[in-house]
Every structure is written in C-alpha cells, then in structure tokens.
Write a structure and sequence with these properties.
By secondary structure, this protein is mainly β. It has one domain: OPCA outer membrane adhesin/invasin (Lipocalin, Beta Barrel). About 10% of the residues lie in helices and about 60% in strands. It has a ten-stranded antiparallel β-barrel with strand order 1-2-3-4-5-6-7-9-10-11. Strand 9 and strand 10 form a beta hairpin. The chain starts with a helix and ends in a 17-residue tail after the last strand. About 30% of the residues are buried.
Length: about 280
C-alpha cells in the first residue's frame, strides 16, 4: 500500500511538472480584434427589379478577428471577418428609392511570411457566406430581390509597421476574392410566389468569375494609443452577377473608422512565454 501511494504521488508530481513545462513553452496567442463603422457611396443595379442603375449611400458595421493558430502559431493565422450593411439608393431622376441590406461573413486560415523592414505577407483559403435583399416599392409584382451565396475564397493580408514620430502605426491591406461556389437566382420574371408554390428548380447556380465576380478590399491604419488603437481607412466592394438574363451589380466605396487592439484570452494570462502577434 505504501509503494502504491508513493507511486501515485510520483506520477502526480511528474504530470504537474510536465504540464508546467508545457505551459511555459506554449506561446501567448492574443486576439487582434476590431469594431468599425463604414459610411460612403453605393451604386446598385438589379435588372430583376429595374433596368436602371440606382446611386446613393452605404453604411455598415464590421467585426474582424485575427489570432495565431494553435497548431502552428509561428506561421498560420485564423481570420474572421463579418459585415452588416444597409444602403439607400435612388434612380437618376431622384423619383424612386431602393433599399438593400445584407450580411456577409468570411472565415479563413492564412500562411504568414515575415519579411524585413516590418513587412508581413499572408495568403490562404477561406469560406464565405453572403446573404441579403433589395427592395423596390415601384416594382409591384415582385418588389424584393433576394441574394445568397456560399463561396470558397482566396484571402490574405499585407501589414507594415512603422513609427510616425513616436507614434506606432500599423497599415493593413486585406483583399478577399471569391473563386468558386454557388449562389441563388430566380428565373427572369419568375415570381417568388411561384417559388413558394413549389417551382424550385434551377434556383442555385455555380459561382465562378464568369457568373459571379466579387472583390472586397480594406486598407486601414491602426494608430496605437496604448492598449487600444484607432483604426481608420478605406473599405470597397465590387460584386457582379449574371445568370438567367438577370444582371446585378453592387459597388461601394466607404470611409471606415473604429477601434482595434490586442486582447489576451483568459486562459493565456497565466502563461509566461513569448507573445505572437497574428499579423506580424
């Protein structure tokens, strides 16, 4: 019995020492998160609702999250980007308005390459989800056009850190390019009421650059003010689809402003290892 007790105590001590050693060797993986507000111009075309191109304003909110991966923190970064937006646009004579709203989210894993002079490049695959609707009260039979897509994207970023006088500033450029997937579109002139009655054939279409082209760009500067940074920059989007003789285009250019910062997860506050910035 004494031998068994001694063995158990030694095993527990060895396990505790191993766990402590692992904790010390595990690097801290802080989360680089940002909350932003975007305001700018919009240009919307949807021939399902009207042959005219409408122009107006765009506003939206966004949340981004970047963190070094658990299994290869020195080389890979997990990225999440979500956007919620609303637009109001008008026809050329300014006699009719059209509203559009939507949400999009993208999650990806990118490979980082640290280059000299504070420059970091990253690229990798991502999964994107895009959904929304356009409303035009003038189109009495069918006033709403729905949009939905699931795509495999190419994404990444380029970051450059420098000091403007004594103020640390990090510039981050992030593109996202859908490559392949599927998206929703009814037939030309098909009523949504017909879809409701059961006419659901041919609603989903393959998404590739010939039928659905999209490109999201963000260029921001994080001005470090201590534990939190002020984020200011540009956000632009181009989305164009063509199927079933229906053409849609959505182009927006926005000024974006918000806050960002590196926050440690609660589980990481007890470690005493190196800290890995997910964008450097």
């Amino acid at each position: 019995m004494k031998r068994l007790t001694l063995f158990v105590l030694c095993a527990v001590a060895a396990l505790a020492a191993w766990a402590q050693g692992e904790t010390r060797e595990t690097p801290l993986r802080p989360v680089l998160a940002s909350y932003t507000l975007s305001v700018g111009s919009a240009r919307v075309t949807d021939t399902y609702l009207t042959p005219l191109t409408y122009t107006g304003w765009h506003t939206g909110v966004g949340y981004t999250r970047m963190q070094a991966s658990r299994w290869a923190p020195e080389r890979w970064t997990a990225m999440l980007d979500t956007r919620l937006w609303v637009e109001k646009v008008e026809n050329p004579p300014r006699t009719a308005a059209m509203w559009s709203a939507g949400i999009r989210a993208e999650w990806g894993m990118v490979r980082r390459w640290a280059l000299p002079c504070g420059l970091t490049l990253a690229a990798g695959p991502a999964l994107g989800i895009d959904a929304g609707a356009v409303y035009n009260a003038r189109n009495g039979n069918n006033p709403v056009g729905a949009r939905a897509a699931v795509t495999a994207n190419l994404t990444g970023f380029a970051s450059y850190a420098l000091h403007i006088r004594r103020l640390p500033v990090t510039f981050i450029y992030r593109p996202s390019l859908p490559v392949i997937g599927t998206f929703f579109s009814p037939e030309y002139g098909e009523l949504y009421y017909e879809i409701y009655l059961g006419n659901r054939r041919g609603l989903m279409h393959p998404a590739w650059w010939g039928s659905r082209f999209g490109l999201d760009n963000t260029l921001t500067a994080d001005i470090n003010l201590g534990t939190t940074s002020v984020r200011i920059g540009y956000e632009g989007r181009i989305l164009s689809t063509k199927t079933n003789h229906i053409v849609t285009r959505n182009i927006s250019h926005c000024l974006t402003i918000g806050v960002s910062g590196l926050w440690l997860p609660l589980s990481g506050r007890r470690t005493h290892a190196r800290t890995i910035n997910p964008c450097r």
